[in-house]
Design goal:
Layout (H helix, E strand, L loop, with lengths): L1 H21 L9 E10 L4 E2 L3 E10 L2 E2 L3 E10 L7 E10 L7 E10 L2 E2 L3 E10 L4 E2 L3 E10 L7 E10 L7
Parallel strand pairs: 1-3, 2-4, 3-5, 5-6, 6-7, 7-9, 8-10, 9-11, 11-12
Length: 171
C-alpha cells in the first residue's frame, strides 16, 4: 500500500514539473553557438545569450549578455561579458571587462582586464598584468606565473617560477 502511495506521489510530482516546464520561455533554453576557422563577435555586436564558440581563432570584441564558453587555438576576449568566461586554447588573452569569474586553461594565458569575481587559470605561462584587477580570489597553476594586478581576497599559486608584484587583500 505504501509503495502504491509513493508511486502516486511521483506521478503527481512529474505532472507538476511538466506543467511548470511548459510555461518556461524557449529563449531561456537557447544559446548562441558559433564555430569555424575564424569566429568573430564584432565590436558593435551584442550577444544576448550565452556564447559557445569553437575555432582556430576566436575573437569576442563586442558585448555578451551572458557567459562565454570558448575552445580554440588563439582566443581573445576584448569585449564586455556580463557573466563568466570559460576558455581553453593555445593562446588566451582576456582584456575586456568580465562581470563574473574566469576559468582558463592554455599554453599562454594573459589577463589584462578587470574580473569582478574569481580567476582560476592554468597554463605554461600565466600572466595577470598590472592593468588587470581581480575582485575576489586567484587560483593559479603554471610553469611561469606573474601576478602584477591587485587581488581583492586570496591567492593560491603553484608554479615553477612565480612572481607576485601586486597587492593582495587576503592571504
Amino acid at each position: 500500500m505504501a509503495a502504491l502511495a509513493s508511486v502516486g506521489r511521483r506521478i503527481v510530482a512529474a505532472i507538476a514539473l511538466a506543467a511548470v516546464l511548459a510555461f518556461v520561455p524557449l529563449q531561456v533554453l537557447a544559446a548562441d553557438l558559433r564555430q569555424g576557422r575564424d569566429v568573430t563577435i564584432g565590436s558593435g555586436e551584442t550577444v544576448n545569450d550565452d556564447l559557445y564558440a569553437a575555432g582556430g581563432t576566436v575573437s569576442v570584441n563586442g558585448n555578451v549578455n551572458g557567459s562565454v564558453l570558448v575552445i580554440g587555438g588563439t582566443l581573445t576576449i576584448a569585449g564586455t561579458v556580463s557573466h563568466d568566461v570559460m576558455v581553453a586554447g593555445g593562446t588566451i588573452t582576456i582584456s575586456g571587462h568580465v562581470g563574473g569569474s574566469v576559468r582558463a586553461a592554455g599554453g599562454t594565458v594573459n589577463i589584462t582586464g578587470p574580473v569582478a569575481n574569481d580567476v582560476v587559470a592554468a597554463g605554461g605561462t600565466v600572466d595577470v598584468a598590472s592593468g588587470a584587477t581581480i575582485g575576489r580570489d586567484l587560483l593559479l597553476a603554471g610553469g611561469n606565473a606573474t601576478v602584477s594586478g591587485p587581488v581583492a581576497r586570496n591567492v593560491r599559486l603553484g608554479s615553477g617560477t612565480a612572481t607576485l608584484h601586486s597587492k593582495v587583500g587576503g592571504n
